[in-house]
Amino acid sequence: MKILILGAQARYEKYLPPLPFIRQQELVFRDKDTPAERLLARDGDADILFVDAITPVPAELMAGMPKLKLVHSEGVAYDKIDLAAARERGVYVCNNKGCNAGAVAEQAIMLMLMLLRREIPGDRAVREGRQMEVKERSMVEGIRELSDCRVGLVGFGDIARATAERLAPFGCEIYYYTKHRRDQEEEARCGVTYTTLEELAASCDIISLHCAVTEETRNIVNEAFLARMKPTAYLVNTARGELVDGLALRRALMEGRLAGAGLDTLAPEPVTADNPLVTMPAPACDRVVLSPHLGGITEASFRRSHLHMWRNAERIADGHKPDNIVNGWE
User: Fold this and answer.
1) How far is C-alpha 61 from the chain's CA centre?
2) Which of 84, 142, 193, 295 could bond to 104 as cystine, CB 3.0-4.6 Å?
3) What pTM was computed for the model?
4) Helix/strand number for the chain, H first, E second
C-alpha cells in the first residue's frame, strides 16, 4: 500500500512505532502546503492519507485519488476534511480521539493559573526591576485562587473529562454544558454539575472550551455569549480558534468587559502577526496569555496518536474497519 503523509518526515520517524507492517508499505512524505495538483500528479495512487489536524482535504483532492481508502487526522480535529465527500466515495475519515486528552487538560489548567496569577505582566515586571511595585499592587487588588473559582467546561468529551479530573484536587466547583447531558453516574464520578450554556456563561469565573468545531459551535463565543459573562471572568480556549469570534473577544477585552483570556489556539491558523487578538495594545494585552497551539503535542500524546494511526492503516490493509470513524461511513 502507498501511504501519503502530509507532514514533517522527522516527526513521523521520531514517533514511528515498532510495527512490522510499516516496513512493508510505501511511505511518501510531502510538505503539507503542497498544491493539490502536484500531489495528484505524483501521488494520486495513494491508498491512505495522513494529515495534521489543520490541513485541508477537499473533495477535489479525494476525487483525484481513486484508490483512497482512509484519511486520518494526526490530531483530534477533523473539520478541515470534507467528510461528506469522503463518505460519498466510501473513504473512512478517522481521528485520534482521546490520545491527547491529558496533555490538553494540562495546558488548559496552566492557562487558568497564569491568568489568575497575572503571570505575563508579572514576568515582565521582574525583568524590568518592578517586582515590588507589582507585588504591592497585587496585595491590594487581590489574587484569586483556583479553589475559589467556578469553572465551566463547554463540551464534555475526553479532554473536558481529563480537565475535570485534574481540577478536582484544587477543590473548585466544576460545571459543564454539552448538547447531550451525561448520566448521573458519570457526573458524580467526574465531580461535575450540568447546567445550560446560558447559565454557565453567566455564573462561572473561568470558562474553558472543549468542543469540536461544527456549524452549530462555530463562533459559539460571540457577542451575546461574552455579554453574559461576568467582567471578572476568564475565557480559556485549548480547542479550536473557530469556536470564538475573535473581533468580539477583542472588543470585550479592550472595553474591560472580561478579565482576561488564555488562548492556545486562534483563528485562522497559522496565526499571523496582525491577528486582532495579537495586536491589542496595553493594558488589554496584559490580560491575555497566548500559546502556539502546544496543548496536545507532548511526546506521550504523539506516541499514542501515531501508534493509533498506523494500527488503523494496518486494519485497512487487512480488509478490516478502522476505529474512531468520524464521517459516519460504516
Assistant:
1) 25
2) 295
3) 0.91
4) 14, 12
